[in-house]
Amino acid sequence: MEGRGDARRSKNLRPEHNNTRYLDSIVETAVEWFAPYAHIIKVIGYGNHETSIIKYQETDLLRRFVDLLNYKCSSNVQTGGYGGWIIIKQTLYGNCNVTTKVKYYHGSGGGGVVTKGALNLTRSLEMYEDFDVFTMGHIHENSSRNDVRECVNHNSKKGYSVKQRQLHLMLTGTYKEEYGEGAFGWHVERGAPPKPLGGRILKIECKEVDNSLVKNIDSFKFPL
Predict the structure, then answer these.
(1) Could you give phi then psi for residue 36, rounded to 5 degrees?
(2) Per-residue CA distances from 99 to 41, 143, 186 (Å)
């Protein structure tokens, strides 16, 4: 946000970024920081800050970051969209295959002080179908909830059966501390409260019950 054309810029620059190639510098710093984790990163999606840079600076920082990270680390990180799908496939004991469908969306709006994003999660139930997990960020909240939907499954041997589908909805947090002591800053002036820092870890458990596979999905706050 310290680029020449950004209205939010300030003089609070790191020494290594205080040069005439600021955007290039932050890409290089990010690659250096994320390099030890490149082998476990699968997808990096756009947020509103990245799309804003494309709009006003005509350069795609996220794709430049992913390309340089893959080049330096021989990794295979994928560039995702502002929203998209991630399909997680697991092979369990007895060569049993389990698929978990994750719908992700960076998010929109400012979030509510009272509801803390609960309405955004409820809207996802109306907008998307056939997902197991929905995850959204953007509003800098960190929480989750579980919903259940009745559905009809078909098996070529057993025919139709009524099942309950477990859905996990979560809001992923941020690592950007904006509140401080509550004295100054855009975040404070607009009346926004302190926000929880940290991400979330998704946990998928499967077990066989009465010759049927039961899947339990939950998440917990990632420690700092």
Answers:
(1) -65, -15
(2) 19, 24, 43
**Angstrom distance (rounded) from CA 134 to CA 114:** 21
What is d(CA 75, CA 29) in angstroms, rounded to the nearest whole number?
A: 17
Domain residue spans in the chain?
1-81, 83-224
Q: Is the torsion defined by CA of 13, 17, 21, 27 positive or negative?
A: negative
The answer to whether residues 105 and 136 touch, using CB atoms and an 8 Å cutoff, is yes
Q: Which of 110, 116, 117 is nearest to 187 (CA)?
A: 110
Given a contact cutoff of 8 angstroms between Cβ atoms, the answer to whether 104 and 86 are in contact is yes
Q: What share of the chain is helix, strand, coil (3-state, %, to 5)?
A: 30, 35, 40
Render pLDDT for 59-112 as a digit per residue (tens, 0 to 9).
999 999 999 999 999 999 999 999 999 999 988 776 778 899 999 999 998 778
Strands 78-79 and 43-44 come out as parallel
